[in-house]
Design brief:
With 515 residues, this protein is of the alpha/beta class. It is built from 10 helices and 18 strands. Bound molecules: 2-acetamido-2-deoxy-6-O-sulfo-beta-D-galactopyranose and calcium ion.
Amino acid sequence: MATGLGAVLGLTGSVDSAPAPLPPNIVIILADDLGYGDLSCYGATKIKTPNVDRLAAEGLRFTQGYAPSSTCTPSRFSLLTGEYAWRQKDRKNSILNGDAPLCIEPGRLTLPAMLRNAGYSTGIVGKWHLGLGDGQTPVDFNGEVKPGPLEVGFDYCYIIPATVDRVPGVWIENHRVVGLDPADPIIVSYVTNISDTPTGLQRPDLNTHYGADKQHSGSIVNGISRIGYLKGGHAARFKDEDLAKTVVAKSVAYLEQHQTGPFFLEIGLFEPHVPRVAEAPFVGTSQCGLRGDVIEQIDWETGEIMQALKRLNLETNTLVILSSDNGAILFDGYYDHSFEDLNGHQPTGGLRGWKYLVFEGGCRVPLITRWPARIKPGVSGQMFNLVDLMATLAGIVGQTVPPKVAPDSLDLSPVLLEQTTNQLRHNTVLHGISDTLALRVGDWKYIPANAKAKSGGMGKGANPDDPRFAASHVTQPLLFNLANDPDEKTNVIAQHPEKAAALQQQLETIRRRRF
Ligand code: NG6
Ligand code: CA
């Protein structure tokens, strides 16, 4: 798989005369719930994203990029390990609460650990959502918060534990909660209301932004009710309207401190996940309401990162990868008018379904790669699953990853570096809520019937029969041909039963593979 760095970088001339190859710095900007149609370079007209558009124009933009799962934790697990999350036997990597234990085994050869072996500094800023603590004892937010990112390959982290809609809403730098007053310790529960603050159920009038469904009506923090209950930690609680600024400040500081390189920085943006709060000056800037505004905020964050790279003279030799952890969603627990304000905007670009689902709208995501020194600008129709980043980046930096370690990750570096148009990924498994799976092979997409996933994870505030939510309940197996039916509208299983049977068999074979 991985050839030597010199070969990958395409250096010519004798070894003696060739300049020492410089490994690229690597920055992954991973948005949260950004849909396939949410950026102007992917067709949005009601949302302006000039900075991301520039990244796309100067880089390689993928039309067939996939998140490994249509929810955050399993998707990020796959990105960092090169393994489909649903292979994990105990499945402790489904959507995690803020007090859940770390779901990646400490010491595992992860993507950042692999890059560290190649001499990289490795940092993560922003969303984590892969659990903290060993699971033996409850994670202690008042003491050393570990194991976490630092135990699975990162040298530095400045993260929030789970989602912005889950307690505790605090920043963690390396092993410590930032700004914690020891006299006001943090107590967290997802079971009983241990808090002394009102909940959204008791005092919906204290929700200053918008109302919430039952699941999101736990402790009210900063005028927004969350999932779970939080007591204490007042000085450490983040302000929603400062999150993007903090992500930018901490990311830029990391770039400055590691400018001699090589470095790997993962930036987990919080937008456009709920609860959506636009920071000034992005209040009301888009033509499709709050959700559009916070996507324009993503564009600003991206622009700030790019400017910092430029200022530090790092632009040419930095590989920037921008994508999303899963597809778009409108209503996700908060009545923030995202649906009502759409104004014709299509978050999934017209693809069927939403976050949580194995339809394309849940899994197909924007994917842009830019590295001026090596990547020729263009548009690629290669199937590229974020699970491939581990082997692909290993290929780029000349590291070898044993197939057992990252079993589902393919080295697609030739697509980035040599513009190969040969399909290097022929199939991909897609993963949705309640462990629903689907298989895409070439243009064919097969979705087995499933009885389990009825509500699509929308919670009680949403009606699962509402066509907007395209519930994940699939009563009959589905077969689509994406070449002429990209929106998965027409089930052609009756016309192609043998195709469906072959894909079902192939899905089973992939599922049962042992390493
Ligand atoms: C769901 C939450 C949703 C969101 C999601 C995680 C309910 C009903 N819904 O369980 O609001 O937090 O988890 O999103 O609790 S993700 O993008 O991080 O996967
Ligand atoms: Ca997400």
